[in-house]
Amino acid sequence: MPPTPSLPDPPTSELRLARGLLVLVLAAGALLRVWLALTDDGLYWPDEIYQSLEPAHRLVFGYGFVAWEFIEGARNWALPGLVAGLMGLARVLGLDSPGGYLGLVKVAFALMGTATAWGSYRLARSYGASPLAATGGAALMALASVPIYFAPRAMSENASALAAVLGLALALAPGASRRALIVGASLLGVAVLLRLQSGIFCVGLVALLAARRQWRQVGLTLSVLAVWAVLFGLLDRLTWGSWFHSARVYLEFNLIRGGASGWGTAPFSYYTRVLLRGMSGVSLLVGGLGLLGLWRARGLAALSLAFFLLHAAQPHKELRFLVPVFPLLAALAAVGLDVLCERLQLKTLRARAVAALAVVTVGAISAGLSRRLTFGDIGQYMNERPKVSAYDDSGPVNRLLAAASQREDVCGLKIEVPVHLAWTGGYSYFHRPVPLYWSASPGGRESGRFNYVITPNGWAAGGEVLAREQGLVLMRLPLPSCVPDPGFSWRLP
Asked: Does residue 357 contact residue 194 with C-beta atoms inside 8 Å?
């Protein structure tokens, strides 16, 4: 595979039109993501709380539940550290209530998702796509329903996706400078710090440079990645006490012990079926355009396919695991759109603009349908509640937790709703250093260990109702104080 030739400068008129369209697409994607960040308090999966928000809350405010990953050391502290930095900023700005610091974190991740769509544009341009075609690819990332749904969630996949696509765009650009290569490889190193599976992109970058016979660039990339590997190990050494502790524990749990299978398994075809169900139009378009761009961007196609197949081969599957490869697939689709325009001999600016707008329209339709997503559409809880809306799940409980945290006299709270603590917002929403119990915790209202409850409307007796949320209430019990509970554990059940 020869080095990618330098790109000719596009006509000024096309570049101006593409930039205007790109701004509109990214602005629309940002608005949708920010709106979701500020209105949805639900959970897709507990990891978005207990592998990021909750440990970050412990770092900044000094208390919170501890999940098993942060007891055994199966995760490094890069993602919680990033989120803690955002929470710390919110605290400095006076946003020290759940609505304030969680809003800032979610908006930050929403904007990361928008920047990831821009990264798709940059990567497509690096592979020779015209500005209009690259804008069409970016629109698929910016406006598709599934990326919008995941974007505001403080998950490692979202943070690593941005670093990965920007790193590849810089490092694989035609005639990339030494500085661009160093920055690009460093961004991939950051992506691995945030999510270990992003190492696939690092291996892919080295392989692609080697296929181009760019041996100096291969050596430089390996050197930069080696530095980031040392930083990964050093972070674990400082936080867990041994080099590469989190990577070793994580790989042992998942690859040797098969621990992730305990949360469910799915067939090889899971990702294909779910993508076609959750965003059928976008998935079919990306698949078709990706095939057209396969040869021109064969390195990008091979890297995307490798990431997809390696995840499809794992027994435990969740759609969020594919989030880091979404921007690569969007960039590949952009290259395919360029190939299609050439084959159809769409030489005029108007014809190429119509083709790009057609792709943008498919993305816009997906965005318009995004609020209809159910858990079945995103491949979650397929056997339990596939037809339930994927939005605001546990949102009422979380908003009542936030309301309880504003009560100065709260000395203990029990969630009497039959929901596991892992499927609530924990202390990230309940911003008080007092015991938080769930329905299976021993001791009822007579125990005196808590003076507030979150309970169904039908159980709201014997106290003062202070807030209501979709059939649930926050109620204060007639207790002046709580009985101390020396057996209360901060470990997440």
From this structure: no
Alpha helices, DSSP H only, in 241-347? Answer: 245-251, 270-278, 280-292, 298-312, 326-343
Q: 12-39 and 349-368 helices cross at what angle (nearest 10)?
A: 0
What is the average pLDDT across 219-244? 98
Kindly report, residue by residue over 85-143, the tens digit of the pLDDT.
999 999 999 999 999 999 999 999 999 999 999 999 999 999 999 999 999 999 999 99
Q: Is the pTM of this model over 0.70?
A: yes
Q: Where are the alpha helices (DSSP H) in 40-155?
A: 47-48, 54-61, 69-72, 78-92, 98-126, 131-143, 145-150
Residue 256, Cβ density class (10 Å: 0-12 exposed, 13-18 middle, ≥19 buried): exposed
DSSP single-letter state for residue 258: -
Question: Most distant CA pair in the chain: distance in Å?
Answer: 79
The token pair at 231 is: 């930083």
Task: Compute the Cα dihedral for 99, 459, 446, 444 and give only its sign.
Answer: negative
- Burial of 477 from C-beta contacts in 10 A (0-12 / 13-18 / 19+): middle
Number of residues that make up the chain:
493
CA 122, 124, 128, 132 dihedral sign is: negative
Q: What is the average per-residue pLDDT within 156-177?
A: 97
Q: Are 106 and 41 in contact (CB under 8 A)?
A: no
